[in-house]
Amino acid sequence: MAHKAQALRMLETYFGYPSFRPAQEAPVESLLNNEDVIAIMPTGAGKSICFQIPALCKPGLTIVFSPLISLMKDQVDSLLDQNIPAALINSTLTQTEFNKAMYDVRSGRVKLLYIAPERLSSNFFCNVLRGLPIAQVIVDEAHCISEWGHDFRPSYRLIGDWLNELSKRPVVGAFTATATKAVERDIKQLLGLSEANVYITGFDRPNLSFSVVRTPKRMDYVVDYVRRHAHENGIIYCSTRKDVERVYDNLTRAGIQTGYYHAGLSDEMRKDMQNKYAFDQLQVMVATNAFGMGIDKSNVRYVLHYQMPRNMESYYQEAGRAGRDGAKAECILLYSGQDVRVHKYLIDQTVEQSLGDPRVAEQRKLVELKKLQAMIDYCFCSTCLRKYMLAYFGEIAHWEQCDNCSSCNAKGRRVNVTKEAKAIFRAIIATEERYGASMICSIVRGERTDRIIRAGLDALPVFGYLSNIGETELKGLIQQCIASGYLRSSMGKYPVLSITAGAEEVLAGHKEVEEIRQEVVVPSRKTKQSASISRSEVSRSGSGGLFEYLRQHRKRLAAAAGIPPYIVFPDTVLIDLANMRPTTLGEFGNIKGVGEAKLKKYGPTFLEAIASYKG
Ligand code: ADP
To answer: What are the percentages of helix, strand and coil residues in the chain, rounded to 5?
Structure first.
């Protein structure tokens, strides 16, 4: 296993990590053995190291196909900062820069060359590539090859043909975080990877905590949250451009350095916002889902969703942009009932506009509505959110409680609502499962509407049985009963409720129903900024002040070098520095994530900063 020892040495020397993560070992080993690989790993799992280390170990060049200029630049900047010879070729290069890059590549100086797949449409460029000693080809964000993926890029289809035309096929590795079977099938087929080793890493992200907050005062919540996390970077996702601008205005008025990003801005403006955010010049970014794949920023400490997204796939992808560096991060979804109405309307609109055949449209709509229901169920799930989420993606979690989500941490707030649930079930049965949530609510609340009186429903024994409970609360309980499998909701335009065997068990007295009472957190906007660092790693040891001091130091160094701060060191390294307070380069070098090049470049200045800190 000589190459394994070499790989570990490279990992320590260049990246400062003592070992591979378990999920990295197999793909690294396969690539080192020249076996094709498809690796499906969640964001933050450490995909890049899986091919960067083999690239360093192998003689010859590694070509990395990457979809976005910003992603390429980020990776290449980061590699160069670690003294790893990398280069990129994309449409932004001048002829001179292009010639220089090609010269470096030809002379064998470059180990990793990042290119956009569009380049393959140029015969000239393909000829240039043909003359190079290509050791391995990596297709990053490989889901872009599939129409089933969310970021389909037709130019990714050029890669397969190009590989076939090479006189000697290099080993190929495809990496992505998108795990559906359809995408995997396309990757295999279109890149000729039917024989590849496929590695799928679990989707759990233990460093992320997940919460759902149901509050009608979302804006107050957001402003307060961002204020309380004044020294942390976050993203706030909104469904519409209008909301992006509203949240942006409110945060800016509260004195917070805020950026905004949506598809309505010019390219230039978007680039500027993204850069400022990467360079920590903005504390928080308010954005629609247009703010996406290009974000490689590892120190995003929270992702708030101002509205519920349309499905779990989008939610997990967006929330997953938090905590890529492995340090603790928070994902909070703010739910309000009106989100459901907006999504249903949008599903109606988009499906009808995009599909001619009404039967296909209807089917598609049902799929979308089912996905939406799964998203709503997440918001009302009273058991472990993380377990729910993993189950949605086809994984079985081996725990009952993760203690890191709002359901598991709601111990004191669980209330027995069996009596209320039974009344709802009885109302549904008494009306022969003909009505939806609004009508059932009206019945149990005892509302004498025309419709109810005409149908004689005011004569039902359950009529007015829950007149003391508010409409929102009752609708929440109904949603929770759906999420817990006591009730079913049909999918059509006018969804009706029906009961399940679970509800019958409750009615028979064999089962109790529990609800998590959401404390509606509506902090005053006048709240003072409290302890800035909620990150438990530093606050527990009382090193928050030093952490902040080092963060500012990192920001200055990064600005001077023209690279984003997280490329100098990720937050995890700063946390360790704040906790361990090294005094020598030797101690500094022992910190995880500090490789030789970085130690030499940044060690002395950080040691000085630590020594000069008077906290
Ligand atoms: P992905 O591309 O899968 O989202 P990255 O390649 O950006 O993930 O890696 C996420 C973070 O994990 C980075 O900060 C990276 O330095 C860190 N990391 C990667 N491999 C290791 C390892 N073996 N030990 C510790 N940290 C690692």
So the answer is: 50, 15, 40
The answer to whether residue 401 sits within a structural domain is no
- Same-domain status, 489 and 377: no
Please state, in angstroms and rounded to a whole number, the distance separating the CA atoms of residues 192 and 189.
Answer: 5
Do residues 312 and 427 share a domain? no
CATH code for the domain of 599: 1.10.150.80
Q: Is the pLDDT of residue 70 over 90?
A: no
- Give per-residue pLDDT as tens, 365-375: 888 888 899 99
Read off the tokens for 92: 């932004």
519-528: average pLDDT: 48
**Amino acid in the structure at residue 144:** C
Reported in sequence order, the residue ranges of 95-225 that DSSP labels E, i.e. its strands, are 112-115, 134-139, 171-176, 197-200, 208-214
Query: Ligand 1 center to residue 99 CA distance, Å?
Result: 32
Instruction: Tell me whether residue 192 is in a domain.
Output: yes
* % the chain with pLDDT above 90: 62
Tokens of 348: 């109606």
Q: Do 80 and 118 sit in the same domain of this protein?
A: yes
Q: What angle do CA 606, 610, 614 make, to 5 degrees?
A: 145
Query: Which tokens go with 547?
Result: 């952490």
State residue 507 phi and psi, 5-degree precision: -65, -35
The pocket around ligand 1, CB under 6 angstroms, is made up of 17, 20-21, 24, 41, 43-49, 298, 324-326, 570, 592
Separation CA 398–CA 395 (nearest Å): 9
Domain count, the chain: 4
Closest CA to 51 of 73, 75, 71: 75
Handedness of CA 290, 292, 295, 300 (dihedral sign): positive
Residue 229 C-alpha from the chain's centroid: 19
Question: What would the pLDDT profile of 110-150 be if each residue is shown by its tens digit?
Answer: 999 999 999 999 898 898 888 899 999 999 999 999 877 66
CA 20 to ligand 1 center in whole angstroms: 10
Distance from Cα 41 to the centre of ligand 1, integer Å: 11
Label residue 494 exposed, middle or buried (CB < 10 Å: 0-12, 13-18, 19+).
exposed
The distance from CA 570 to its chain's CA centroid, rounded to whole angstroms, is 18
- Separation CA 25–CA 45 (nearest Å): 12
Query: Do residues 108 and 237 both lie within one domain?
Result: no
Specify the CATH number for the domain of residue 63: 3.40.50.300
Residue whose CA is at the smallest distance from ligand 1 atom 18: 46
Whose C-alpha lies nearest to ligand 1, atom 25?
A: 17
Range of the domain at 57: 4-200
pLDDT in tens, 401-447: 898 999 998 876 788 999 999 999 999 999 999 999 999 999 999 99
SS3 202: coil
Contact 230, 530 (CB under 8 A): no
Question: At how many degrees (to 10) do helices 437-445 and 471-483 cross?
Answer: 130
